[in-house]
Amino acid sequence: MTNEGPDSESPDGTVDDDWHLFASASYGSAEAEPAEIMEIEETPEDEWFDGDDHIHSGASIDWEAPPCPAPLGIAHVIKIGTCDNCLHRIGGRRVDSTGAEGGAMLRAEAHSRDSELEKAEIPDLCPLCENLFEDVTNIVDRVVESTNDYEYSTMQFGIHLPKDMIQSEDSIRTKHGAQGSKPLKSSFVNSIQEEISGRIQGVSFVKESPDIMITIDALTLRVDVDVRPIFIYGRYRKLERGIPQTRWPCRACRGRGGDCENCKGTGLQYTESVQDLIGEPVRSTMDASDTSFHGMGREDIDVRCLGSGRPFVLEIKGPRTRKTDLEELSEKINSEASGKVEVNSLRWSQKREVSRIKETRSEKSYTIRFKAGEELPEEEVIEAINSLSGRVLEQETPKRVSHRRAAKIRKRKVTSISDILVEGDEIQFSLRCEAGTYVKELVHSDEGRTTPSVKEVLGTECEVLWLDVGDIHSD
Ligand SMILES: [Zn+2]
Ligand SMILES: [Zn+2]
After folding, report:
1. For 45-91, what is each residue's pLDDT tens digit?
2. 364-472 maps to which CATH number?
3. How far is the CA of 272 from the centre of ligand 2 (A)?
4. For 414-418, which contacts have Cβ atoms below 8 Å and span 24 or more sequence positions?
5. Which pTM value belongs to this model?
6. CA–CA distances in Å: residue 28 to residues 19, 111, 163, 165, 171
7. Cross-strand bridge partners of residue 462
8. What is the chain's mean pLDDT, rounded?
9. What is the torsional sign of CA 173, 179, 185, 190?
10. 288: helix, coil or strand?
11. What spacing in Å lies between the alpha carbon of 85 and ligand 1's midpoint?
């Protein structure tokens, strides 16, 4: 009666929403800096520049030009090489189309106003977006390709643009663009979303909690697709001893499997776990890649968990299907794990419930049976054990867990004791106590590390036969 499960409690950390970091990250590399900035010619006319001018393929930005939508402003942004997409975005004039088409209309208008403009030498690279919009279709192709197999209804985008590009775009747009022009990043996301909407039915774009998160690096055009996990809350009862709560890696091969004889290549010390008895039917139903199991505390492998069951949240990773009937799922789990584990109260949950489950400390009820060193009069046993009701135990870290927890003394209260049963030298009782009480140690005293104890009040050795968790008094 010593095993308490693997040390690796929740090694399967959930992925944080880190795209905010992504969005504000900067490469700060020299490559992002326009090389042309090194070639500024020192002409007298340039003297008023304070060093942050831009020269793009020979056409320099005239900071004196009026902003769009003034015709001179539009003519100017065309001269410096603004692409159709950006022209529409910063032009500030209504036309019948949007995006590149709208920009082409503005360009045609400008050409008809000023025929010289058409003949002017215009740089190829847009100083605002560096022709980023040309990559939209390519990016959307990759998004469509990598999300094909998945069911989803919401999508979120995170775009990373080099910091220098954002800064230079911002200075040109605020100086020459029409007031209220949309910044590059959101226009770029819009273009991508518009094209996706035309190719994928029924997807909506959100700012948080998407089914699918897509991050795009505008510098390398790398597209990352992250299918967000789904969470299910429930309670489980463990009806059979010998089943660990979570997967327990093989001691011999440390979970590597292969040709390990100890685990016959499974990588598992125990072929069954509460995690997989519940998680596998769910994983196969939702065509997911894996599951993580987050229990409200855990019981030892040799301890059953009865009563109304222990609350848990199952995290389903990379699901291809996101919708299912929880009633049917519950029946499937209970029939496949019949006699071992059963679940109840399944409902959809969220990532934040994982921390609630992990942090909740609630009182628990137990039933424990032990063998006394000698037969004692029933009255005496009942009186002695009852004397522990309401007492505060001092529990030094038990020997069985001291290899992974620092030695210290815990104080835990025994709230109540009931149903004391004396059958020869075997004694059984139920108790309710504070979260974190070492219940087996309360009985056998762990060589005096727990005091008071049943062993102490009975004055005889006590060998624990079994322990059941009754109710977990939470939720
Ligand atoms: Zn552009
Ligand atoms: Zn092994």
Report:
1. 333 333 344 444 445 666 677 888 888 889 899 988 999 999 999 99
2. 3.30.70.3190
3. 14
4. 414/388, 414/389, 414/390, 414/442, 415/363, 415/389, 415/390, 416/389, 416/390, 417/385, 417/386, 417/388, 417/389
5. 0.76
6. 18, 38, 7, 10, 18
7. 372
8. 86
9. negative
10. coil
11. 6
How many residues can be counted in the chain? 475
79 alpha carbon – ligand 1 mean position (Å): 13
Query: Reduced to 3 states, what is the DSSP secondary structure of residue 167?
Result: helix
Q: What CA–CA distance (Å, rounded) separates 207 from 183?
A: 17
Looking at all shown ligands, the one closest to residue 187's CA atom is: 1
Ligand 1 centroid distance, CA of 202 (Å): 29
Q: For residue 217, report the distance from its CA to the centre of ligand 1, in Å.
A: 17
SS3 readout for 110-153: HHHHCHHHHHCCCCCCCCCCCCHHHHHHHHHHHHHHHHCCCCCC
So what CATH class is 230-359?
A: alpha beta
Q: How far is the CA of 279 from the centre of ligand 2 (A)?
A: 22
Peptide bond preceding 123 in cis form (omega within 30 of 0)? no
CA of 225 to the centre of ligand 1 (A): 26
Q: Which ligand is nearest to the CA of 123?
A: 1
Q: In which residue ranges of the chain is CATH 3.30.70.3190 found?
A: 364-472
Burial pattern 460-474, b for ≥16 Cβ within 10 A else e, equals eebebeebbbbbbeb
Helix (H) or strand (E) holding 364: strand 364-372
Catalytic residue numbers? 300
265 C-alpha vs ligand 2 centroid, how far in Å? 6
Outline which parts of the chain fall under CATH 3.30.70.2510.
230-359
Can you count the helices (H) and strands (E) in the chain?
Answer: 14, 16
Please name which of 67, 69, 65, 64 lies closest in space to residue 88, comparing C-alpha atoms: 69
Task: Looking at the CA of 100, name the nearest ligand.
Answer: 1
**Which ligand number lies closest to the CA of residue 127?**
1
Taking only the tens place, the pLDDT of each residue in 246-290 is: 999 999 999 998 999 999 999 999 999 999 999 999 999 999 999
Of 236, 471, 224, nearest in space to 366 by CA: 471
pLDDT exceeds 60 at position 10 = no
**Phi, psi dihedrals of residue 222, rounded to the nearest 5°:** -75, 135
Quick: pLDDT tens for 416-449. 999 999 999 999 999 999 999 999 999 999 999 9
* Alpha helix ranges (H) inside 177-296: 184-199, 274-285
Q: Write out pLDDT tens, residues 342-357.
A: 999 999 999 999 999 9
The ligand placed nearest to the CA atom of residue 259 is 2
Q: What is the DSSP letter of 356?
A: H
Query: Which helix (H) or strand (E) is 88 found in, with range?
Result: helix 84-91
